[in-house]
Fold each of these.
Amino acid sequence: MTTFKVWARWRPLKSAESHNGEITRTSDGDHTLQRHGISISIAASTRNKVLSSRERSWKSGLSFDGVIEPDEKNNVAYNRLVAPIISDVLQGKCCNFFAYGHSGSGKTHTMIGYDFENGDEFGLCLAAANRLATALGEINGEITVASKFGIGLQVYEMRNNSAFDLLNNQNECFVREGADRRVHIRGETEILEDGKVRVRPITTRACWSFEEVQRQLREALKQRETATSTIHDQSSRTHAIIEMEIITSDLLRARDSVVERQSELVPVGKYATDVYIEEQLLAVVQTEDGKYVPNPDYDVTRQQRVHDAETKKAEFETRVKEAEEYESEVFASIAQLHQCIGGRLVFVDLAGAEFLSGPATSRSMLKQTPQEKQQGRQINTDLLALKEVIRARSNTSQSRIPYRSSPLTMVLRHHFEASADSQSSIIVTVSPEADQYAATMNTLKYADLIGLANNRGG
């Protein structure tokens, strides 16, 4: 069972918000406990206002692993959440990190950061990349091999039912579940010479230094879509997913070979299907009463066409299987040199949750288009599905995990399953501003439900 940590992070109160008052908050518990041991209490400010029934004081269960205070910088969050699991990644494990919260609460600042030069303000993903690149440099210095270890970077955003490749000009990709029950993210179909049909997987950029990761990530995130939310007009309205996997150039070449063999199979498989359908249609005739009966004039020797086409298809299917087996062999041979190969960090900067309840404020009345409202509904659906997946995975008696509830959880399925023997975390970011009391309370309730489920399942 995955160990799932739950953290809360309060952002500082902005000077422009001080006239509205500040939420009263306290944290109780022992953060040194092996399991969840911190409770958070909040109460709305009474300055210049009468509290509504929605603004009653609230207290969580012992469901949090820790609290990051407003005056603590990003490096503190990294040292507490991510630094302890880098050793797991260097053993080939997968660890996932999520930032959840309402718009404007500091998710993107925490997960990605806005300052790409100041190490203390690196977001979790950038700080992790820095440490990972340093560790891989040390490993490369110890092992004499032609193919050095590097970081394979993927950056994409989930919007509605599609993924958009931010390392490939926001190219729209499609989320599909294959016969192997694995979810694949595929780009547009390319028609190549000799009739080959290639469906490219999402882009992986090989980075051999931290500076390369930094540059690629900066360029990718410029492509991320923003729109009007109920809080402000430049809100991130997509879930940004940043994957960093430990790779070598040999492994990437083996994976490219699989894609190439698959592209060769597509036209051959299509031809075999076309021939089969054509011959089946010729082999029957329709009678006057509308029934289909065997065609007495059909030359059964034509079935050789079907046999030949199927034989060729089987030949190309064998090539795909051989390429997949070769990829596995390459992976295994690299793993004998060092167990870090395939280790993966996944950072998910979730779109801002939309809380439409409570009294209207000037910001919550921001004009949204029908499309933006629909986006908000889809975002909330994704976030609900994510919560239910995390809770279900914590319940040892629950055999069915509702991954299919949303495209987001379908995409994350492989990462959840790959992290079964490692630690993952969700950090909820919350605003101290009194006007955001209802949104803050709902955010903490979301985390409380996850934390309590993990506590019971642990």
Amino acid sequence: MTSIPSQSELSALALETARRCGVDLAASAGDVPTSSPVNGQGVTTIGWRDAAYVDEAVGRAQEAFREWRRVPAPARGALVKRWAELLAEHKDDLATLVSIEAGKITSEARGEIQEMIDICDFAVGLSRQLYGRTMPSERPGHRLMETWHPLGVVGVISAFNFPAAVWSWNTAVALVCGDPVVWKPSELTPLTALACQATLAQAIAEHGAPEHLSQVVLGGPEVGEALVDHPGVALLSATGSTRMGRAVGPRVADRFGRSLLELGGNNAAVVTGSADLDLAVRGIVFAAAGTAGQRCTTMRRVIAHTSVADELTDRLAAAYERLPIGNPMQEGTLVGPLVNKRAYDAMAAAITDATGDGGKVVAGGGRAHEDLAPDAYYARPAIVRMPEQTAVVARETFAPLLYVVTYDEFEHAIEINNAVPQGLSSSVFTQDLVEAELFVSAEGSDCGIVNVNIGTSGAEIGGAFGGEKETGGGRESGSDAWRAYMRRATNTINFSGNLPLAQGVDFTI
């Protein structure tokens, strides 16, 4: 039986935890109320900044940039290394704040903080590997090479569902690349943001780095818009809805800035006739119901071969009936609350649309624990068997709602996977080498993340994270995503003593 903490209990826990992380609660006080999805009730009141403050913050960041870009990259990495140590010291406290403000179960909240530590480790190594290339010149006595330099101020706009990790993906890499960061977090997770910033501020102070190397600006949409439009923001990294991205991208481009967009996902798993169904069920249930369906990589569609679709659906429905739903900080809980009523209403509307299209609900749907927490929105993860992929299936619903459709030919499964506007994550469960290779080939999934025999969520920081089409095309975290945070210069060095021109041009004076 789940228990839901009272308003006073949760508020006291949140404020004391934030204080232990170094948050100056008096300096952060204000009149904007915040609440927790755990009980749907107020936690505290916070002070917000306005759009004019963004100009001040960017100005301070530009001053910090002029100093920080001169610091050798390995020395910049040393700062990030210390930040990782502080994150590890405060891992449990930061995870508690993530659970309170975002509703994540404890293991997922701790995993998010571990992801921050991991990206710091990656960035420390990266600080000694910001490699350029040397290319052969066609002219004797010349050398061609490329060098990479710090870009400038990085603006980060993050969403509630990963209130800490996504900021760290940008910040750890930006710092070793020589860039300061101005962060506009979600309005729903201010204490998490302040606590994360406090750990980095301590590392900055200990290293004697510029004070305003990292800043957090709490505020409403106008703060985000000010970051988007500010000419002093060289790179704007924004995580959110496709609708948001449609507004952000053109506005940044209009001022010739760079944007890095991580937007919607409508992620599918193809389950073939040869699939290990034990493996598939475990992978699907976590990807579809984990984080209460509120990850951009959440699995929202299963494309099952007709020979296994009935058995797979029955096994998924049975697993869903066993999912413990409730207080995310209570041991044993696997599914916490939706973030708010709007999220629940969107899920309910999508189920109505799906049944109107001939779909059949085979598991879940509706609210849970309404008697214990009438102001919170605990949803029962739902599975809807669909006759085909209709418009509602192609629409991302940010909730634990999974559609099951069928296919006969593998090429058709790939077509169904690709026939949505989004292109973030995808997977195939198969024991057939040809199917696996085809799915990850140029003829296969059109997503930025393409997996075999695992689900669609749970990406590691070593790989570049992001997607195609309406997902925005951005890449964050590992691989060569660091290049977005730097500017490239191509250098030609003449040591010949002569001045031959390229392409054999003769311009003798």
Amino acid sequence: MKILYFGGSFDPVHRGHTALLKAAVKEIKPDIIHIIPAFHSPFKERSNTPFDLRMDMVRQAFKDIKVNIIFDNFEQRQNKKTFAWQNVEHIKKTYENPKIFMLVGTDALNDIPKWSNPEYLFKNVIVVAGKRVGLAAEEKLPFKYHTLKARLPRISSSQIRLEIMISGAASEELGPIKKIIDDNRLYFLNLHDWLKKNLKENRYLHSKAVSALAAQLALINEVYPERSALAALLHDCGKSMSPKELIAYCDKHNIRLPYYKEICENGPDLLHSFVSAHIAQHVFKITDEEILAAVREHTLGAVNMGVYSKILYVADTGSKDRKYKGAFTVRDLALKDLDTALVAATRMKLIFTVEAGKWLCPEGNIVWNNLVSKK
């Protein structure tokens, strides 16, 4: 009996997965397909999307494939990280002497030797790989595999999540799973709902513009674009409050920062970044400290900022919606060198504050002096 095993996070499932499965069905002609969504992928952070919803999306995406498909919740039942070899072992115990084909994309194919217990896989499955446009298998892999003839679209779940997060909308191209995403406000659609309700339209559009640039800068600097995009969407959520409301919020939640008294007296709007971080943590349950730090530090900056803080600080200053002089320069520099852009953005903020006759927070001077001392 031929069993085709197809695992993955499916977060979300997309037309690339469907094309891959259809190509395998056409060539392998399996008797049964086991679709096993990951409960917690060993290679990724735990998904924010509940397992049951990812399973629902998979059922919708593969409903037209005319083969006996078992939508297997084996990993959910384990309630922990589960490895591919354990899924194969589960399938072997389910059938008498099955011939198991393990379906993967080209990107996963190259990583199989690094997986847990790869020797077990080499002995017990026939690897079936799809060719994705723009990706190729390594020339020498330590196992035999079958390459499908079909050419598959170059698309990824992370790309889809990022597009939804930045735009605030799920594309019609997602087909039947769009309704599941929309109905459950997945991939931070709930955050967009909140921002549209609580921010003025131009502030909401600014947040989206910053998110787009932050994601681009993250890719250039080889860090996670979803983290940068999320920090950018959250960075101004405290802007919904007036100066008096910002002070009251900080007092109520015991939010304190250097020069707090002076800021309350001379520039209470500066509190919005700290309030935004608090909202991110307590309303949207963000626990990633790098994201929270980026939100806190996007206005005044900080000594020795991390890469996500630098990206947000620069993206906020140089986003495409900014019309003031110097924004394009900061953006252009950021696409070439993040640290150079950070110095330029900090300098521009200081000059703008002085020329506008506004109070200059001492923290800004400390950050500037730290930056120029490193030149």
Amino acid sequence: MSAPTTAKGYGISDTSKYTDFSVKEFKLKTPEAHDVTLHIEFCGVCGSDVHTITGGWGPLSADWVCPGHEIIGKVTHVGDAVTEFKVGQRVGVGAQVYSCLKCDRCKNDNENYCPEQVDTYNAKFPDGVESQGGYSTTIRTNDQFVFAIPDALKSEDAAPMLCAGLTVYSPMVRNGVTKGKTVGIVGIGGLGHFAIQFAKALGAHVIVFSHSPNKKDDSHKLGADEFVVTSEEGFEKKYFDKIDYILSAADAAKIPLTELMSTLKIGGVLTSVGLPDEPWHEFSPGAMNPNASHINSTHIGSKKEANAMLKLAAEKGIKPIIDQVLPMSEAGKAIEAVKSNKVRYRFVLKNDLD
């Protein structure tokens, strides 16, 4: 049986009506020798979906966009050159579906930084076909961007790892989070609650910084060693020169950056995985002078990192806290809940289109 040429999904046409999803049929990318096609079973609801379909990160790339890039499904077709995957296998696709695979970045496990990379949705493949995401029945992509899911991970648990999990895991390993390091985690939501677990699994002493105490118990259950309320004046003083690395998952334009930077050791790094619609407020580069500290960001992760992350999660029992699993037909409800900050951790959608 030949590979399908179309799929159907839930999408948005107007960023001012971001909960008004409509079902449409759309074209899949042209099949190639290294492509894998999968039938989608689950898709996580990511903050990126909200930023995109509300217009927070700019206009939509097409008249209709199907979001979703935390995708779990079963392989239905493989190209002639695919050797890693077989029909019927459970696999995942994350936030990237294409890169040139030829440049130095691609050849050195940095395909997530390829200048020709294509996002899973709200973008275009080189053949001109619009990329559409996981709130749908089917997705097709090059096998480089497909990940085998370990048997120990439930599908609904694995889905959020393919963006949220990888987005925090990659910068941690790239910035040297290992046994003996002290790591700060800022913001305990969909990203931050993964960050606590992965930092602990990598051997770090984990300090959680949160603007309120309402997730203190959860943080300790997830593996945090200490919990700090940043709304308390002078919270940072106890931690001066104590922290090797900070990962900020706060999706907010105003966080206590100056105070947080002061806790870093000489040359310490703060990585922001939170990407708010508005720029950070009231932060001066001078805050980095006293300790030669750095701020950086990150873009998802490589296939090598994704496979290592999934293996670690399976070995250590890492999984998301899922508020609800909803049918895809309730995508609007899920998006509104994330937008209004009514989701504590993660929502996952289950395919109900077929």
